[in-house]
Design goal:
Layout lengths: L2 H71 L5 H6 L2 H9 L5 H19 L2 E4 L2 H7 L13 E5 L26 H8 L3 E6 L11 E2 L3 E2 L1 E2 L2 E5 L5 H8 L5 E6 L5 H7 L2 E4 L23 E6 L2 H11 L2 H6 L10 H5 L5 E4 L10 H16 L3 E4 L5 H12 L5 H7 L9 H7 L3 H11 L9 H11 L4 E5 L18 H8 L3 E9 L2 H5 L5 H7 L6 E8 L4 H25 L12
Parallel strand pairs: 2-3, 2-8, 11-12, 11-13
Antiparallel strand pairs: 1-3, 4-5, 6-7, 8-10, 9-10, 9-14, 13-15, 14-15
Helix pairs in contact: 1-4, 7-8, 9-21, 13-18
The structure holds the ligand CCCCCCCC/C=C\CCCCCCCC(=O)NCC(=O)O.
Ligand LD2E54VC binds next to strand 8 and helix 13.
Amino acid sequence: MGFLEQFVHNGRALLGHRSKAILLSGAACFGAVLLVQRVNSRREQKKRILEAQRRREKSFQVAERALLEYKQSHPMTNALYILSLSLSELTKQLQESALSPEEVFYTYLEKTLDVHQKLNCCTEIILDSFEQLKTIGSCKRGILYGVPLSLKENLLLKNHDSSCGVVKYLNQPADDDCVLVKVLKEQGAIPFVRTNFPQALLNYDCSNPIYGQTLNPHNLQKTAGGSSGGEAALIGAGGSVIGIGTDIGGSARIPASFCAICGFKPTAGRLSSKGCKSIFRGQKTVLSTPGPMARDVDSLALFMKAEICEQMVFLDPTTPLLPFDEGLYQSRNSLRIGYFDCIEQTPTSPSMTRGVQEVKALLEQAGHTLVPFTPVRILDMAELMSKGALADGGATFLQQLEGSPVDPVLHAQVAMYRLPICLRKVLAFILKPFVSFPSDCVNDTIAQWRRLNLDVVLCPIIGPAFNFCYCGKLMSMVPHSMTYNLLNFCAGVVPVSTVTEEDERNLFVLIGLLQAITGGVGLPVAVQCVALPWHDELCLRFMKEVEELVKKARKDEGANANGKVYLIYDFH
Ligand SMILES: CCCCCCCC/C=C\CCCCCCCC(=O)NCC(=O)O
């Protein structure tokens, strides 16, 4: 090798080694920076989560002290009586000054503190409520004067975070109350507690990395349901007389079914959604709406009456000037009712089917006409439902969770949204032959409704309460509720029965459901009542009738003691 060649060769080797070394050390530095960033961000997340948990604890401690102070001078002898009153009875007693707002407030506060200890259903006690209580006398003419009210955490409240379980939303207090809360305060209600939900809200379990898992009041081994599970658990256990949830796929109805309370999803737009936070913006195909949750249907109706007023329309002119029709709610003419007790390609538990069949029989005995109704094929709507809820295939959902630990209830969903596009395309190709898009599922459903001359529809709602972490694995059940968000019909659920040994035995054929709901004997069973868009009062009136008939049947059966129990949860 000549001198020149030797020189070039040595130079290359040296450069090669050096560039490799440079590359390696560059990569090591980059890796170290990423690692440090990751460790720092984990530390920061943990810090934020701990701060939020401390804030929650502090709010409980302050509330406990205030309660203790109150009790020292006020013996609270009326507590059991107050807790037994329905919302209409309670408002009457408050308006007639037979009860004072203070004794009602502290009674519910005490019960809430107790229930939360057992079920982990609250995210904070709203300390501003103590101030509001002092001046509540000025709202004496309000429909809900002196009524303590619970709120799901995603309803904006001035100076409070609405985290939706996402760490990056912590420490971002709202500038103002949401419209519904503003109106309720004017009507004399006192929002005093905020309640738990699943991380990112798009799930029907109830757990998040900040506030943990909410338990079912009827069985601590089961979830309270979601996403408005904190509300359902608290109300179901008697810690609140009325609360607000939100619903884009069943979030007010599913937890109501799991916890034996009533939940109502009004037609989207009937109540203001201004200030109801979600992790997505601008969803238009599947519509989200806030809705009331309570122990009985009259309470839901009273809530709607209180919200639907000029002030709501003034604060949110996107809501219609459509006063609550009390006459329609109170009417008792016989109805033509469509019904179905299962839907194709959608798992339905034995108790869901039995619930519908038993209520159908009661309605027929009461003189109503029941007509079989076949909903538009769920598979034809499934694509619209998933695209409407997750138009970007879950990208925003995953993006919002960046920087947050992912809660176990979301693992199945997150794994699905992380599937590579090519794999999803293969799946879509395989499923294509089963899906034929209807030209217009809303008008197709309305056309069938009109052909049968129906007033309302009776159908199943997901239940009974699931074992933890199964809700995210059984999104195939969501059409039972989400169909009415897609159609934008109003829908509500009423508890009607409890799971029997026979329901449990019949479970064995449902492989997918078996593990999710096994061990449910004695748990609540509910049915769903549906009406056309803007027929909210008719839907509530139908729910009321179902509630009355079931109560009467339970009483009669108690008298006949034939062993069959329609409802064991006594609300009054
Ligand atoms: C035959 C299978 C069809 C499956 C189609 C299901 C489409 C699922 C798409 C998204 C998942 C949405 C889950 C919704 C659960 C309810 C949660 C909810 O209503 N949250 C809203 C809120 O809290 O405001």
